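Please decode residue identities from the backbone states below.
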């Protein structure tokens, strides 16, 4: 070992060169509130329960999404539609209780693929942070898209940039 190798000067200089090289590179971070990150078109975000054009819920509580979920994050309870509730639900059966535990969800999209009625989809919105475990259990009211008849602007905004074939799918 030479004298320079013994006092580690060469290794210190190599480390400083790496540091100086990274000092002038483009930063990987962004200023979040001012700048928004662009996501891929196949990004899977928060779950949304869809409605049809008349504002009725599409979910028929068939349970295929819960069966397809590998993380077992979806729970639901079915109920029968009562007379006079035709404007609320498309089918005779509907989901009286629909919950997704976002702490278990792996955002795989299998629930979206399993649904025969296009009642659930993963939006382009990412999951917000929360302070308690209860805040990560999303109930039906948290996920239900706004009614297109009473709130058309909010409905269009909630749809996001989904392909047209998925919006008109019945």
């Amino acid at each position: 070992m030479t004298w320079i190798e013994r006092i580690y000067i060469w290794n210190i200089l190599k480390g400083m060169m790496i540091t100086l090289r990274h000092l002038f590179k483009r930063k990987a971070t962004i200023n979040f509130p001012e700048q928004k990150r662009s996501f891929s078109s196949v990004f899977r975000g928060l779950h949304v329960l869809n409605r049809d054009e008349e504002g009725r819920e599409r979910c028929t509580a068939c349970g295929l999404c819960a069966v397809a979920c590998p993380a077992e994050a979806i729970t639901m309870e079915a109920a029968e539609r009562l007379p006079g509730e035709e404007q609320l639900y498309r089918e005779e059966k509907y989901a009286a209780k629909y919950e997704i535990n976002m702490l278990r969800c792996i955002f795989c999209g299998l629930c979206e693929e399993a649904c025969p009625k296009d009642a659930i989809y993963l939006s382009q919105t990412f999951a917000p942070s929360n302070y308690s475990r209860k805040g990560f259990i999303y109930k039906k009211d948290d996920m239900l898209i706004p009614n297109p008849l009473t709130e058309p602007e909010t409905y269009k905004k909630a749809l996001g940039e989904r392909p047209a074939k998925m919006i008109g799918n019945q």
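Observation: The domain at 47-167 is CATH 3.30.70.3270 (Alpha-Beta Plaits).
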